[in-house]
Amino acid sequence: MTSDQKSNWSIEQSASLYGINDWGAGYFGLSDNGEMTAIATQSGQPVQLSLMDIVAGLEQRGHAMPVLLRIENLLDERISLLNKSFAAAINEFDYQGEYRGVFPIKVNQQCHVIEEITKFGGQYHHGLEAGSKAELIIAMSHLRDSEACIICNGYKDAEFVELGLYARKLGLKCFFVIETPSELSIILEQSRRLGVEPLIGVRVKLAAEVEGHWFGDGGDRSLFGLSITQLMDVVDQLRDAEMLHCLELMHYHIGSQIPNIRNIRDGLQEACRYYVDLVKEGAPLGYIDLGGGLAVDYTGARTNETHSKNYSIEEYCVDIVETITESLNSSGTPHPTIITESGRATVAYSSVLLFNILDVSHFKPRPLPDQLPEQSNDFLHNLWAVLHSLSEDSVQECYNDAAHYREEVRRMFRQDQLELRELALAEDMYLEILQRTRELLPSLKRVPPELQNLDEALADIYYGNFSLFQSLPDAWAIDQIFPVMPIHRLDERPENKAVIGDLTCDSDGKLDLFANADGDVRTLPLHDLRPGEEYYLGVFLVGAYQETLGDLHNLFGDTHVASVRIDDDGQFEFVEEIQGDTIGDVLSYVEYNPKELYEQLRITAEASVKSGRITAVERRQMLQTFSNSLNGYTYFERD
Question: Is the pLDDT assigned to residue 259 strictly greater than 80?
Fold first, then answer.
């Protein structure tokens, strides 16, 4: 590190460059020595903890990178913020109902996450949403609070319904939300068989649609929910069965990660019309469930773009309470208990993927000679001339010429008319021309279209010790943007523009879309690596969906997981440590038996000893290495 790198750079510039104060929502910051910090509120005061201190603690405990870090305090704070914001809005508008949050288990099914939500959320009667029998089993075993709600969504067979009715017998407030007309007969049959009256909800299919990636969750063609005619059929069937009094909840869901608050208000206004008329039909109702949709501002742009949002949690709660109050007061309909299924906004901030950088591929030329070697090819002389004539006024012409001459050099090499060293020199000159061209671009009045992606074409590739497909599948599948940045050396200027490759043998295994104050960009500023020193990056806001959706591309398994809690004095404790998958683990997931694999290699090795290809000592060493690998981490491990 040079003195210029520090004297000409500040942590405030890093905060601006990486947008920490925008997407961090007050949960992340920078220390004076340039390290990324997590910020928790303790006794009403912010307490900062360096992520590098956590990394040191992880390594002292034998956890190599990559590691998924969970910060319990941030999960607790999100639950508190949501519930307190609704309480404030209810008080402001003299709303006569209550708020009951439920967490959709599908967003993050990990046991420690659910345990913390139900434990800390108990003071707010925070419940759970289950979309399958497995998730219902989780909800039944973790909730003890008779005031908290279990919302059963998704398709339900007889066993699903039976489980939910047993939850009712245990005193739990378990609602069956009817998604399709065929579910009602199953619910009624199981209810009669067990002698338990069900709590029934109906999911209505609204006409309202939303902006963003998940716009297909709403509208007439949405997959789930009852059309108006189906809804009326369900009401009539319940009335005929003398069980209309069981219809206590109305549910709707118009989309996940809704970036525009106007869409939320519009959908709720339509839903309130359904609610009022269902009450007129004789349904007692009492609960209105808005589903999910509360967004996370992954970019910090505060706009209605897909990965952002143009509202705060406080505004979200105020708009919901105000809209319901206005809509129901005009008809004299009693105010219901409000339920939201906020998953992403609850857990996203609490998880960070930490990994180290293993290597870098630079797209920079080697030092060029003072002059070309004698008898150099004419095209090399032409590239040399372009290099030395490049200026602001000739950028376009020089770029065109350089591309032409390089292609001619490559053609001659393919035809055995040039030597390998001449080709290498030509490539170095071409890269030098591009590097100098990039430096000139900011001074141009207009950047030619073919040069607008020059940063991306020249970006260094930083190879990260992680699997995109295992730990950040949405970045590959739907171009989800996550905040990515170094967690240290932030008091130094990052000199390189880079993309990040993972360990998989796949060209899609890379991060090359990042948030920027001016919009999405294809490169990320990073520092030079230092010999003998690790360089750590963090990917933030990854607590929603990523652990559940990850796959075994190249048989890279689950990473180590560590959960920490920040204390009042800024210290921390590891409250849970989970070892990542071993190679033996992931092999067993795809139906290999590690013991059988070992035995097969032993037989092969013994035959090689017998034939004289290896010694008995080499056999022992080989089998020991094989055994150690079976029990080792699937990711890169330093010696």
Answer: yes
- A 10 A CB-CB count for 117 gives 26
**CA 334, 337, 342, 347 torsion-angle sign:** positive
Domain ranges (residues) in the chain: 93-342, 378-454, 584-630
What pLDDT is attached to residue 3?
Answer: 54
129: left (phi over 0), alpha (psi -120 to 50) or beta: beta
CA dist., res. 490 & res. 587, Å (int): 40
Could you count the other beta carbons within 10 Å of the beta carbon of residue 34?
19
**What architecture (CATH level 2) is domain 93-342?**
Alpha-Beta Barrel (3.20)
Q: Which string of DSSP letters, residue by residue, matches 163-199? A: HHHHHHHTT-EEEEEE-STHHHHHHHHHHHHHT-PPE
For residue 259, cis peptide bond before it (omega within 30 degrees of 0): no
Find out whether 103 and 82 touch, Cβ atoms under 8 Å. no
User: Please, are residues 577 and 63 in contact by the beta-carbon 8 Å criterion?
Assistant: yes
Residue 83 one-letter amino acid: N
- Cα atoms in the 13 Å half-sphere on the side-chain side of 315: 12
CA distances from 67 to 252, 352, 581, 602 (A): 37, 8, 12, 34
Q: What is the CA radius of gyration of the chain?
A: 30
Secondary element (H or E) of residue 624 = helix 616-630
Cα-based distances in Å from 79 to 63, 97, 100, 278, 370: 29, 19, 11, 31, 65
Number of H helices, E strands in the chain: 23, 21
| pTM confidence score | 0.93
**For residue 416, with 0-12 CB atoms within 10 Å meaning exposed, 13-18 middle and 19 or more buried, which class applies?**
exposed
Count the alpha carbons within 13 Å of 503 in the hemisphere toward its beta carbon. Answer: 22
- How open is the CA angle 423-428-434, to the nearest 5 degrees? 125
Range with lowest mean pLDDT among 77-81, 140-144, 519-523: 519-523
- Token digits of residue 158: 């007889």
* Torsion angles phi and psi, residue 574, rounded to 5: -85, 115
User: How many C-beta atoms lie closer than 10 Å to residue 511's C-beta?
Assistant: 23
CB 340 within 8 A of CB 440: no
CA–CA distance, 120 with 118 (Å, rounded to integer)? 6
Q: Is the pLDDT of residue 211 over 80?
A: no
Helix (H) or strand (E) holding 117: helix 111-120
337 strand-pairing partners:
287
- Please check the confidence at residue 220 and state whether its pLDDT lies above 70: no
Three-state DSSP state, 49: strand
Q: What angle do CA 500, 501, 503 make, to 5 degrees?
A: 140
Q: How far apart are the C-alpha atoms of 434 and 451, rounded to whole Å?
A: 9
According to the model, what pLDDT value does residue 43 have? Answer: 84
Whether the CA torsion 124, 125, 131, 134 is positive or negative: it is: positive
pLDDT of residue 549: 87
**List of residues 6+ apart from 39 with CB closer than 8 A:** 26, 27, 28, 29, 46, 47, 48, 49
The one-letter amino acid code at 197 reads E
CATH code for the structural domain at 378-454: 1.20.58.930
